[in-house]
Amino acid sequence: MLKSAIIKNYNNSVLLNHYTKRFYSIDTLKSKTNNKNVINWVEEQAKLCKPDKIHICDGSNEEFERLTSELVQKGFITKLNPNKRPNSFLARSDPSDVARVESSTFICTKDKVDAGPNNNWKDPKDMKATLNPLFDGCMKGRTMYVMPYSMGPINSPISHVGVQVTDSPFVVCNMKIMTRMGDEALKSIKENDKFVPCLHSVGAPLKEGQKDVAWPCNSKKYIVHYPEEYSIASYGSGYGGNALLGKKCFSLRIASVMARDNGWLAEHMLILGLTNEISGEKKYVAAAFPSACGKTNLAMLTPTIPGWKVETVGDDICWMKFGKDGRLYAINPENGFFGVAPGTSSSSNPNALEAIKKNTLFTNVALTSDNDVWWEGLSTPPMKAVDWHGNEWSPQSGIPAAHPNSRFTAPISQCPVIDPSWNDPKGVPISAIIFGGRRSSTIPLVYQAFDWKHGTFMGASTASELTAAAEGTLGQLRHDPFAMLPFCGYNMGDYFGHWLSMEQNSKDASKLPKIFYVNWFRKNKNGKFLWPGFGENSRVLKWIFERCNAKGEEGAQQSPIGYIPAKKSLDLDGLDISKDSLRELFSIDKNEWLNDLSSMRKYCSQFGNRLPKEIENQMNQLENRLNEY
Ligand SMILES: Nc1nc2c(ncn2[C@@H]2O[C@H](COP(=O)(O)OP(=O)(O)OP(=O)(O)O)[C@@H](O)[C@H]2O)c(=O)[nH]1
Ligand SMILES: O=C([O-])CC(=O)C(=O)O
Ligand SMILES: [Mn+2]
């Protein structure tokens, strides 16, 4: 009787006082912030989602401990062997909730053309009419967690803040690692500051007495962005890219729109510091590769060539704004790594292995008999393990033990090669930008743009063979301009235009980063990689570094597609690679390139009059150069 009376009052929006009395935690929020918009927005979400409880996250280690122990107690996650991996946990997702769902990801603008052919679109009013009944009561039986967070160093002029509400404690634990989340972030949101509101629910309300499951989610999923109001609503998934809304939803889809509106760049790029230890000179490089194409690996690379050092600023996202000196300064808006586990090993990426030794959350990897984690490529397979479905597994099982998109979530500060400036509010000045994709043919190991316009065209023409990071057919080639196809929050034609406009926005175009394209994934006729990759990619970084310092064509040779390394300018000392492989790695096949170009033309035609004229010019110029070749 009493309970139903409370629920009745709770559902009645007029009885707000009554409701705040009961839910002391809104008072907690009020005691911590004087930003009325934050308070009102959280109240509105509570009224809509109707959680049993509200918890305002402070972002402390105690909070993390409490939430993880609760999840362990319920049997929803597994505590790993504390002697091997202190304060680390394994979660197994629902088998249907293992990757981003691009087909259920929407950009809701008033005009469809503003979302572009690169996005699923729905009118914001219609989308809200669809979502409201879904969110209504979606947190019944659960706690609503309120997470204020900063993307980027607290109070940096390049950073931006958000507030996410969620009914998933596992999401809270991930967000604590991936962002600067809690009291400090809330304090940085001043009285009249704007923030990005992020509503998230796994879409699995609990009826009274209903037993919960380890990974609640809903077969109906909606990952929704309202670029015109800089806000996000995500329903039905607990998986990283769909649920940690600071990541792809805010830092790329919404931030790309903020960046367009204000003359900066929000990109799917790693950031690394590269030092020539002999001269002492250091440069920062940003690189965009599609999902699961090597950003984390390049960001933490251990050079195989002596005298060179790589340090990590970020492995996935990069925000760049112009500094007073006219250069582009970058921050990594994130505070952790959400990395692909399979393939990570002491030979491919020892620094990542070091970074995930403690305080790490694992999703969908295998569990060994001594309560540690394992995945394909880590080491020789264990005799037996528990696979990501929770079933007994042995090497004879004939299926992978870890999901190909299984991930680790680890604090960036644990990376042994973390850059001293990774948390600097000023950001780091970028000297070179690299694009790349997974291409088994056509694209050489490395080449350089003639200028910014040509570089923009190179970014626009990025294409890659599909990986497990998204739904779709593995291996299929798709255009993925700037590695932003799933992440650009507006019409990609306009996005090309925005990149081109950076040349005019810069006070001095000569200070813009130099632009390069790389391909670690070219294969020979037997399907074997021609280039050893990983640490050996330092050879390519060295060439890029030297090209940034070079006068004119020093170290380079003109080709129809751009500058390629001149003879002997790529350091191959001590590398075991055949002359044939090298020739193949750098071969430029006119017909393959013309095919690529015609595929690009076809791809670009969908943007209609939103495609900048300059991109057409670039395509025509490339065609002319190829025909003369
Ligand atoms: N052959 C080859 N494979 C590589 C290289 N670098 C990375 N990989 C493989 O590519 C896969 C994904 O690499 P990551 O570095 O995690 O990719 P990412 O771009 O950070 O991925 P997201 O987190 O999805 O954005 C792993 O299986 C790596 O082993 C390389 O230089 N050569
Ligand atoms: O967002 C995710 O799920 C992981 C990621 O970095 C990507 O897919 O690029
Ligand atoms: Mn990514």
Describe the structure.
There is one protein chain. Helix 18 packs antiparallel against helix 19. The chain has 3 domains: 2-73 and 101-262, Phosphoenolpyruvate Carboxykinase, domain 1, CATH 3.40.449; 266-336 and 418-628, Alpha-Beta Complex (Phosphoenolpyruvate Carboxykinase, domain 3), CATH 3.90.228; 338-412, Phosphoenolpyruvate Carboxykinase, domain 2, CATH 2.170.8. It is 31% helix and 22% strand. It is globular, with a radius of gyration of 25 Å. It is of the alpha+beta class. The protein starts with a helix and ends with a helix. The structure holds guanosine-5'-triphosphate, oxaloacetate ion (OAA) and manganese (II) ion. Residues 289, 291-297, 315-316, 339-340, 342-343, 348, 469, 520-521, 529, 533-534, 537 line the site of guanosine-5'-triphosphate. Manganese (II) ion is lined by residues 268, 291, 316.
Low-pLDDT runs: 1-21
- Beta-strand percent range: 15-25%
Give a short account of the largest sheet. 9 strands, mixed
Helix/strand class: alpha+beta
Which CATH class of the largest domain applies here? Alpha Beta
CATH architectural designation of the largest domain: Alpha-Beta Complex
Radius of gyration: 25 Å
Helix percentage range: 25-40%
Q: Quote the distance from N terminus to C terminus.
A: 84 Å
Write down the domain tally. Answer: 3
Number of helices: 19
pLDDT averaged residue by residue: 95
So what's the oligomer here? Answer: single chain
Q: Care to count the β-strands?
A: 31
Q: What's the CATH topology name of the largest domain?
A: Phosphoenolpyruvate Carboxykinase, domain 3
Bulk shape: globular
Small-molecule components bound: guanosine-5'-triphosphate, oxaloacetate ion, manganese (II) ion
GO biological process, one term: oxaloacetate metabolic process
Protein name: phosphoenolpyruvate carboxykinase (GTP)
Pfam families: PEPCK_GTP, PEPCK_N
InterPro entries: PEP_carboxykin_GTP_CS, PEP_carboxykinase_C, PEP_carboxykinase_GTP, PEP_carboxykinase_GTP_C, PEP_carboxykinase_GTP_N, PEP_carboxykinase_N
